[in-house]
Amino acid sequence: xxxxxxxxxxxxxxxxxxxxxxxxxxxxxxxxxxxxxxxxxxxxxxxxxxxxxxxxxxxxxxxxxxxxxxxxxxxxxxxxxxxxxxxxxxxxxxxxxxxxxxxxxxxxxxxxxxxxxxxxxxxxxxxxxxxxxxxxxxxxxxxxxxxxxxxxxxxxxxxxxxxxxxxxxxxxxxxxxxxxxxxxxxxxxxxxxxxxxxxxxxxxxxxxxxxxxxxxxxxxxxxxxxxxxxxxxxxxxxxxxxxxxxxxxxxxxxxxxxxxxxxxxxxxxxxxxxxxxxxxxxxxxxxxxxxxxxxxxxxxxxxxxxxxxxxxxxxxxxxxxxxxxxxxxxxxxxxxxxxxxxxxxxxxxxxxxxxxxxxxxxxxxxxxxxxxxxxxxxxxxxxxx
Length: 385
What we know:
Blueprint: E1 2-14, E2 20-32, E3 36-40, H1 47-54, E4 62-71, E5 78-79, E6 85-86, E7 103-104, H2 110-116, E8 121-124, H3 128-131, H4 138-149, H5 155-168, H6 185-196, E9 203-207, H7 215-232, E10 235-240, H8 243-249, E11 252-257, E12 260-266, H9 267-272, H10 277-284, E13 334-335, H11 336-342, E14 355-356, H12 364-371, H13 379-383
Parallel strand pairs: 3-10, 3-11, 8-9, 9-10
Antiparallel strand pairs: 1-2, 1-4, 4-7, 5-6, 11-12, 12-14, 13-14
Helix pairs in contact: 4-5, 4-6, 5-6, 6-7
């Protein structure tokens, strides 16, 4: 069952000169119930903006310009023109419910989305070090979240649940009476995970859950997320710049660059049958355990400015495989399997297919071979295209 369906979503940030930063540009993907889905890419590619837009946590100058965020869950009813609360089959895109019963989170009011957060979709924020209130006991912060969304719950029961949640993530229950500064970095991250699970949500959004942690603690945090998913059946949307995190825990993933998705599909397919120049470049910059003498190769140049993005493929200025067509328009998401089997470029209708935004998907053998060579990724090579 598809729990979350992001459809052609565009998110903008207004700036002082009346222009806008195109932070997320016509992005589509879906997340199945009980699945771990990953969004990976360089800093500034739009990952966190995309995640925050799903539950209305953008900065004050951020807004969803277009698109839908369809969610399959029990959400607050909307009112019709006569003030009657209802959930109905409708065709009007300005209303938050569509024919199959899914609700458009992007169309909910601020008061309605507050009821969705924590109860249906919970966020594990990017910096656990700053996510906890320093003047409240850690256990009290978890209790507060429970009582906000379940006001009928007795205070003692909420306190007991908070301690139980901390124990589930490997923190001694009595530490609920401690303050955040008394926790180590790894304990803070676990505490934030426990807080996110306070109201048994259907989905967790984990934004850079292993940032600023050493590799041992990173591994333990990822194990905690996997254990929570197995126990509660929760879906997890993982956001990271670390492609190795995706390989470890994600069932499917999408690679973002410049506000767009460049490649998406099953994690195994993306790693074993990499089909986009940007993904190939990203893989080159991370070490593998199978090649001890591997030379890491970085992608030359810098990500594009999204304030007034140029026409064409977002990655073309840094891509050694760009062709003339890349300058005119950004490529659609092509079906990789279809391109390999038939040599034809066909847009992928299925979100679950292995997809790549590249005009040269039908030339993958050549591109993959050249992408392994260090000289392919020099500024001189790219400038000479």
